[in-house]
Amino acid sequence: MQHLLSMILFLPLLVAFTMGLLRVSIETLRMATFGSSLIVLLFAVVVAFYFHLDGGMQFVHNSPWISHYGINYSIGIDALSLLLLLLIALIMPLIFLAIWEEQRKGYFYNLLLLQTGVSGVVMAQDLILFYLFWESMLLPIFIMIGAYGYGMRHFNAMKIIIMTVLGSMSMLLAIIYLGYTHYATVGFWSFGLSDLTQLAFDSKTSILLAGAFLLAFAIKIPLFGFHTWMAPAYSSAPTAIVVVLSAIMAKLGVYGLYRFGFTLFEVPLGFYTPYVILLCLIGIVFYSIHAIMQRNLKRIFAFSSGAHLSLITLGLFMTNIYAWSGGMYLLATHAIASAGIFLMIGMLGRRTQDIQIAHLGGIASIAPRFAFFFAFFALAITGVPGTGGFVAELLIIIGAFKYHFWVGVVAATTMLGAILFIFWTLQRTLFGTTQEATKHFGDLSAIEIGILTPLVIILLVTGIFPSLLLDFLDASLSANLEAFKGGVK
After folding, report:
1. Which parts of the chain sit beneath pLDDT 50?
2. What burial class does residue 116 get, using C-beta atoms within 10 Å of its C-beta: 0-12 exposed, 13-18 middle, 19+ buried?
3. What is residue 357's predicted lDDT score, i.e. its pLDDT?
4. Nearest in space to 174 (alpha carbons), one of 210, 132, 126, 130
5. 150, 281 in Cβ contact below 8 A?
6. 355 with 304: CB under 8 angstroms?
7. Residue 222: is the preceding peptide bond cis (ω within 30°)?
8. Tell me, what DSSP letter sits at residue 126?
9. CB 390 within 8 A of CB 465
10. Closest by alpha carbon to 307, among 290, 283, 337?
11. In terms of DSSP H, where are the helices of 26-152?
12. Which residue in 420, 417, 443 sits closest to 430, CA to CA?
């Protein structure tokens, strides 16, 4: 299984370099990228089949890399890592199908490189290795927005890379300090997560180190105050990158906090907890209000993602099993719902060349299948009963009330805010009078329905049978929560 993880990780990279060296045609490149993504999905399912729900890290592979400085090729997965790996493996072939008619080879090469980057983030158990994958997933996004984006694409591409690199550099300095401290304390270098958890620092140093990691993850999520790159990047990015930004990359910010923040810095994170919770609560309200004010579909759902990611982060910092279970449940279900809605916005944009709400309308009367799927994903994002988002948000809200009554009250406004702007969006987009841009609107093709149907099924299954996913996560979350509370004590 250890070698299978490495194959999942490096197959997309190998395909990208091989196709580039051979200078293949666009048709061959399409087949190779889609085929490799299906193989990765198959490998991920095999790994899931052999995974044991005992709450521990499994399939760990550790090989020396830069031995003199204790940097190793160290990978492994627990339940949450596997869940994210499965999501990545599922979403990527759907993206490749959605852009099948794309004629620019750079789309496919960059997405292959991006798949390796995001997969590496959820597997890495060495902090230098984690940092390399963390940075490598940013370069394809920068290229795709700058080369294939819309509007002020060059400015927005520079904005996202400057902000994220700023956070990443703070994290790199903290990682190097941790490795050096291990050398000074134990006598040899190590950047392994299991080794670094044994280190002890004075309160001031530990608070600064935790803040360096927190800055990197807060920008990537993004939390309120670190969000200024979000809406411009979403509006300028091509569809494939918007899906990755919302469904995958933003979730990795939360994953980074869970995996490294709450493992390395149990006590100092308590110092930041009131401030992070305040930012999350402000973000829930702020993003919901701004979503209502937008007139561009991408920006509407960008701010919607911000609100839900604030809710997920809130659940993580409340550190009770209800909030953690709900947060990780929402991490998965929101990834599926946001992938679906942004894929559909891409389909809508190809048909109308316009995603301004004022120029849309009347779609339901001439394209009922499109209207059904669009409404389903939009309502799934709000957490409508019967979908996974409802179960997840309900658990977080229960955890929020357990933490503090007024925190629970504000957390509950996420559902209300989402319902307001989603119904306003559906009314203006799908119903009403047909506009010039939508009078010849074509309904979904069989291939497009095939792309969207797996996402619908997953959202329904996770909503109707929540115990399937909750039982999958329970042992790992419970063990990590107990370890975290033990570290705090």
Report:
1. 489
2. buried
3. 87
4. 210
5. no
6. no
7. yes
8. B
9. no
10. 283
11. 26-50, 79-98, 105-123, 127-136, 138-148
12. 443
Stated as kind and residue range, the H or E segment containing 10 is helix 2-22
Neighbours of 447 (CB within 10 A): 11
Please give the Cα distance from 157 to 276 (Å, whole number). 27
Give me 407's structure tokens. Answer: 């925190």
Helix, strand, or coil (residue 296): strand
Q: Residue 296 forms beta bridges with which residues? A: 356
| CA atoms in the 13 A half-sphere facing the CB of 58 | 18
- Helices 266-293, 467-488: crossing angle, 10 deg rounding: 130
Q: Give the chain's end-to-end CA distance (angstroms, integer).
A: 36
Q: What's the pLDDT score for residue 484? A: 66
pLDDT of residue 487: 53
pLDDT at 445: 93
Q: What CA–CA distance (Å, rounded) separates 181 from 300?
A: 45
Helix runs in 221-296, H state only = 230-236, 239-244, 250-256, 262-264, 266-293
pLDDT at 90: 96
Percent of the chain exceeding pLDDT 70 equals 98
Angular region, 361: left φ>0, alpha ψ -120 to 50, beta rest: left
Which DSSP state fits 389?
H
265 and 165 Cβ atoms separated by less than 8 Å? no
Are 254 and 174 in contact, with CB atoms under 8 Å apart?
no
Tokens 């994953």 belong to which residue? 255
In 3D space, the residue among 426, 472, 481, 476 whose CA is nearest the CA of residue 86 turns out to be 472
H/E stretch holding 335 reads helix 321-352
| Calpha distance 185→206 (Å, rounded) | 16
